[in-house]
Design brief:
Layout: H1 2-30, E1 38-39, E2 42-43, E3 49-57, E4 60-65, E5 70-74, E6 80-85, E7 90-93, E8 104-111, E9 121-129, H2 130-160, E10 167-176, H3 186-200, E11 206-211, H4 219-240, E12 252-253, H5 266-272, E13 274-282
Parallel strand pairs: 5-9, 6-9, 11-12
Antiparallel strand pairs: 1-2, 3-4, 3-8, 4-5, 6-7, 8-9, 10-13, 11-13
Length: 288
């Protein structure tokens, strides 16, 4: 009985082993692929990245590093997002929405499942400082607000400037130039910024900048010169005096037209070589 039992038991064990092997293989084929390489139960680590989030699209981030390079990483439900705060680096979990452009981060990664060089990396942990997150948030919110305000103001101006006769000229500041020149003097630069500061305190104020010349030279040359002078004044007002571009009307050059004084004398010509900065306010709101 014992001999028969042993002979009969051997094939039974073989069948059981084969069945177990087939079941194990079937389970492996049906199990979903791990997004990271797994060797002996351990995920293969990728490089640790330190840099700034330059762009985000869906579950992909572009990280620009200090050496000028950039790396694309993926995030998923297993990615831990933390902000470090306090002297001992205590952490709090944050949502993926906190991963803003311009945010300095440290990223720990896994190598993607194909293991090929240059393939995507998967973020296992992304950490950053609370102060950096606040700064990135302020930049994003401030930029969005400025774009919205400028777009709204531009559309408003298009409607309001349909008829220039509906505006009152509240003041005019003239700056003057040497013959054939477009350079601003130190006194004129100070005068322009003073005008901009005063106008900024007037709600709905707009600027209309017009360039002029004296009678010296031909018409084509004077037209170009008057336009260049107007452009020089506008650039200085915007870049140095803080005047907003959307509150500036399209400049124009009038060459030798509309002289302030006679072109028969040097003194009169000096008065005519000018750019007039006109401050306008809509008649419908002027005085309110």
């Amino acid at each position: 009985m014992r001999v028969i039992s042993k002979k009969f038991g051997a094939p039974v064990l073989v069948v059981l082993f084969a069945t177990s092997a087939v079941s194990s293989l079937s389970a492996q084929q049906q199990a979903p692929a791990d997004p990271a390489i797994v060797v002996n139960g351990v995920k293969t680590p990728g490089p640790e990245l330190k840099g700034v989030i330059a762009a985000r699209h869906g579950d992909k981030l572009k990280i620009n590093t200090a050496d000028g390079g950039s790396t694309i990483i993926a995030i998923n439900d297993d990615t831990k997002i933390r902000s470090a705060s306090g002297l001992f680096g205590s952490h709090s979990k944050l949502a993926a929405d906190s991963l803003l452009n311009g945010l300095p981060v440290t990223v720990k990664t896994w190598q993607s499942s194909d293991g090929q060089a240059g393939s995507d990396l998967i973020a296992s942990q992304i950490s950053f400082r609370n102060t950096d997150l606040k700064t990135a948030s302020m930049i994003r919110n401030g930029t969005s607000q400025r774009f919205e305000e400028q777009a709204a103001a531009t559309e408003s101006l298009r409607g309001r400037m349909a008829d220039i006769d509906k505006y009152n000229i509240k003041s005019t500041t003239n700056v003057h130039f040497e013959t054939g020149k477009t350079e601003l003097s130190a006194q004129d630069k100070a005068s322009l910024c003073s005008t901009a500061t005063t106008a900024q305190g007037t709600e709905n104020a707009l600027m209309l900048v017009v360039g002029y010349t004296d009678s010296t030279g031909g018409d084509d040359l004077n037209q170009q010169l008057s336009e260049k002078r107007a452009a020089r004044v506008i650039n200085y007002l915007q870049q140095n005096c803080g005047w907003k571009p959307y509150r500036m009307l399209t400049p124009t050059g009038m060459a030798k037209a509309d002289p302030l004084a006679s072109n028969d004398t040097p003194e009169g010509k000096a008065e005519n070589r000018r750019v007039a900065v006109n401050i306008l306010v809509s008649k419908s709101v002027d005085g309110l």
